[in-house]
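Researcher: Here's my situation. A collaborator sent me these components and asked whether they could plausibly form a single complex. I don't have experimental data yet, so a predicted model of the whole assembly would be a useful starting point for our discussion.
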Amino acid sequence: MTNEKVDVVIVGAGASGSVYASVLAKAGKKVVLLESGPDWELTDLISSEIWGRRIKPAGAPILLDGKNPMTYSAQGGWGVGGAALHYFANFPRLLPTDFRIRSEHNRAHDWPISYADVAPFYDKVAREIGVSGDARAEEKWRPAGEAYPMPPMKTFKNGDIWLKGFEASGIPMVPAPVGMNSVEFKGRPACLYDGWCHVGCPIGALANPQVTYLGDARKAGAEVRAWSTVTRVLTNPAGTKVTGVEYYDDKHQKQIQEASVVVLAAWSAQNPRLLLNSATDKHTKGLGNASGMVGHYMMSHHVASTWAMFDEDTQNHMGTIAVQYMSYERYPKTSHAGAFGSSFITAGFAMKTTDLANSRADLFGPELADYMKRAARRLAGIKAFGEEQPNLENRVELISEKDEFGMPLGKLTHSYDQDAVALWNANFEEGLKVAKAAGAKEAWSGRGSMPTSHLMGGTIMGTSAADSVVNSFGQSHEIPNLWVAGPSIFATAGASNPTFTIFALSQRGAERMASQWGTLTN
Amino acid sequence: MADIGRRSFVKGASLGALAFTVGGAEVVMAAGEARARGVPFRLLDAHQGETLEALGETLVPTAREAGIAHFIDQQLSVPPHESLLQARIFNFRPPFAEFYRTAITAVDAASQKLYARDFAQLTPTEQREFVDRMRQNKIEGWTGRPPGALVYAVLRADAVDVVYGTMEGYEALGIPYMPHIPPEKRW
């Protein structure tokens, strides 16, 4: 069945898709969002780690391969709101050095834009959806910008207890910027600090898409079609324009949605899968893939978690899943001798019983039961997120096996290089020093399999089709009315949690699309 | 605590409890209650249920009574996109029953080699020793996939769910649960 043509069809109703929908619907465009999962509402967000798994990935799996498989299910999203329905809402930004690694270090690649190009959009997003923090305090590490619209969040003992250790280690900590309300903001209530953010905040204190961009988009007339799985992007016979998408609806019926512009906002692994599966005789390697880069340069953050037991009550059930304190002090790429890449240091977060159990994954039986009792009031943690450099071999590709709609499954291959491993180890060493200086009774590194946190790359931005998939706005180098949004367009990963940058780049891209509309539809 | 009243400002969740089949009718109850009432398994056979209970109890004390086998069995019977099992978070590919079947088969095969008995028939001391070796991938002759350490991780996580992931589990540890939308039947 062919539906009435619209101005814009957006594939994916998560963080990036919701921004595009809001900006374009407000600009008077007819917008349809197609989302493969359910249409979650705030009343679906039950305060339970067990029940919270309903909003985690389902549907066709991405098969995992490589030395460090990119385990994505805990962080990924499924359904309207995407991963941003249950994200931690840590809102650090990338720093100027992230945009010019090639120029400064002859490593990786430069972005085609600078920090100054993105900074106004960080500020705009903060004004739009609400960010709590202390911008002035951050400006010891970054160029000045606007103040955040809300003061920092409350802190608790599980964060405060680390400050002495960081100070002794020469690492200044400042209030972390978060996409949560420290006070009432635009009619949304202030946070209650009970730590259920990661299963979805039903009161709207956390800036999930439902209460921000997506809500605005719907008010402006955007239509959201849940249970709609896109399988191909369609082109005209000449292969010069996209004409819409093919998708399967909630009854598994094939549908065609024609549109003047197609935006792929389906997350870093699915965007390349869709482009590769949309190959034609004019685009034999997949749409927008003259460079052969579609699916390549998949990136992640590694995380070094340091755990510690204290004599005092750490109030670890209180706070938010977002962190209370942060530092860019180890963000310069060569901060640790023998390693390369940025580290973003954080402290203080609420924990649930699963977190307590996972902090000592080696314990079981009576020892675990005993540990749980002690950890319930005495445990606290710090985390250092580390940058992975883009590697061509880390990739998404199609395999012969197909999903229920006949679309080839994607396989994601990922391995960390020696720089990443060295940085991970350095962050562990520093974490233990901080814990000791903080007066921890006992401290240990949360090792095990090297973790993969946040998924980026796959359709990276650059200056031309020779070395990248899209330009800095997310527009395909080859097909002007095909756009890609979200972390897949990041050229490098930095070490900062990505969602604030996803919002900012999407705002920038969507405004560009609206301003250049005539050139896209002629 | 500030503004407790707002915690309950959004109500109406109706997906809190699990549906078990009793006498041909669907009855909503917690997994521990289903075990106590002798609710038949939907997919597991008696040996699989017994093995999961023995593994769960070894991993997290009281997991048997909390209904780990009934929890897993009930969750295996729902569509994968509705599943609450940790297998979903561990990136296993549906159907998740395949993981549990192969895990139980591998555990029993290794237990037979080491002790000439299935895992559920081992003494608590032997079960503990077995699980410790499985955790470290140190069981010689372990066959097939998934590896022992992964079986340990997933079943331990399931056991943590039924013992500590409930409102009762929080209470037992003295941790305030503080829900916005409380799960029904105290899940």
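Model: Some features of this prediction you could bring to your collaborator: Chain A touches chain B through 52 residues (CB under 8 Å). Chain A is about 25% helix and 20% strand.
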